[in-house]
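Figure 3 (text version): structure tokens given as input.
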């Protein structure tokens, strides 16, 4: 949880952001444990916090300084770019939460009105439109389709299910489909041909007719040639070929991030006639990543708030200009802070179906005191429903979320009920701002 205080016109405004540091996503180094990765996670945020305290007269100048400072962390001793810019993402989100309150604006209107002072061309020279309203939808979405994560260890039906958790939530994929009337799915791939083939055949039989789905390879293939071979194997089977042709939306991040944007990968994509749409996710670590990916033959990228809101706007502009894909993916977001900010941004970017798994792997607000869930239910009754014993869960109806109320708020709830008991997670004191 990050908390900032921003002074505008002699009044202070509090901004919040939150993140789930999912093991081995921000940094996929096989030779380290999660505990060994934690110091770098803390360093990314503490560095961003220090840079964020430098006074600036505009959001644009402040953000450019923050992004440059975090980019310096990538130079030796090297920190993975995705991890370094997670610090940027957490601080920019908290500051935007404060600024949208101070300006009585939403995320969308803060940028489309020019209040940010940040132009598209200042991020990417090829974005020649003078303002963000050229790219942002005139009206944010008010309904989002849930694209349900099917994890590698998730039970598909009762035959897989071990002892389910002692709660009233659906357990297997079949249970979730029945409970929420799901139509969109994100299917994880392991990179092992026999395992993936068997699982895909089961899913082809289990998912509802006309289901739409994405395949997430999670960096599990060594190169494009190997993934191409797997694709050919699946399509040699009539059942899978028909299912993939009818339902597949795109494939996400087949290669390790370090090998995704190489010339060799571009050559592999160019040599693959009529390849399915392939997008980057973990490889989208900097402002330069998407333009490079599009030049190599990729079909787009994902948006996750942990990769940055400003970069997400630049990616919206670039994908819109190129007719490419901007998908919405999840990093196990939960309320009362991260999930609402994530949904508000997906609304603003106009991304109609969004991966959601925080509600699936975590039981709503059950880890927080009852007041947290009660506040969400009372303020956003169309989005949250009561859950026993005293928490709140997302209200998924016919596979969708009603997110319209978020379009009337700043970036998330102005005063979310934050549970007490958060302890400082940074290893050293954060410098204090100079006297104003």
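Below: residues designed for each position.
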């Amino acid at each position: 949880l990050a908390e900032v205080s921003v002074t505008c016109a002699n009044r202070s405004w509090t901004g919040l952001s939150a993140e789930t540091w999912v093991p081995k996503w921000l940094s996929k180094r096989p030779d380290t444990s999660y505990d060994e990765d934690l110091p770098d996670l803390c360093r990314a945020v503490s560095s961003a916090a220090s840079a964020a305290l430098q006074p600036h007269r505009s959001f644009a100048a402040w953000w450019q300084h923050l992004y440059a400072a975090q980019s310096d962390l990538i130079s030796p001793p090297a920190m993975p770019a995705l991890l370094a810019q997670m610090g940027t993402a957490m601080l920019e989100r908290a500051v935007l939460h404060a600024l949208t309150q101070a300006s009585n604006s939403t995320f969308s209107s803060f940028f489309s009105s020019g209040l940010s002072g940040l132009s598209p061309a200042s991020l990417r020279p090829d974005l020649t439109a003078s303002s963000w309203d050229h790219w942002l939808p005139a009206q944010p979405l008010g309904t989002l389709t849930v694209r349900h994560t099917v994890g590698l260890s998730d039970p598909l039906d009762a035959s897989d299910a071990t002892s389910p958790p002692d709660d009233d939530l659906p357990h297997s994929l079949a249970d979730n489909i029945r409970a929420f009337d799901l139509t969109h799915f994100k299917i994880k791939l392991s990179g092992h041909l026999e395992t993936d083939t068997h699982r895909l055949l089961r899913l082809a039989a289990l998912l509802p007719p006309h289901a739409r789905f994405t395949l997430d390879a999670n960096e599990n293939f060594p190169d494009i040639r190997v993934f191409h071979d797997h694709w050919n194997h699946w399509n040699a089977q009539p059942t899978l070929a028909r299912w993939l042709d009818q339902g597949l939306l795109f494939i996400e991040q087949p290669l390790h991030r370090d090998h995704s944007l190489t010339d060799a990968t571009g050559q592999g994509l160019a040599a693959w006639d009529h390849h399915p749409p392939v997008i980057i996710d973990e490889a989208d670590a900097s402002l330069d990543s998407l333009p490079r990916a599009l030049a190599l033959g990729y079909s787009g990228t994902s948006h996750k708030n942990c990769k940055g809101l400003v970069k997400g706007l630049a990616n919206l502009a670039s994908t819109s200009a190129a007719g490419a894909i901007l998908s919405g993916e999840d990093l196990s977001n939960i309320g009362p802070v991260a999930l609402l900010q994530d949904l508000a941004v997906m609304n603003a970017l106009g991304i109609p179906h969004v991966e959601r798994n925080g509600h699936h792997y975590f039981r709503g607000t059950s880890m927080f005191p009852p007041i947290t869930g009660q506040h969400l239910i009372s303020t956003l009754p169309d989005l949250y429903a009561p859950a026993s014993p005293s928490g709140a869960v997302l209200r998924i109806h016919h596979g969708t979320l009603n997110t319209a109320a978020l379009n009337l708020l700043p970036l998330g709830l102005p005063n979310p009920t934050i549970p007490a008991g958060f302890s400082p997670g940074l290893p050293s004191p954060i410098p204090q701002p100079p006297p104003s």
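The domain at 143-408 is CATH 3.20.20.120 (TIM Barrel).
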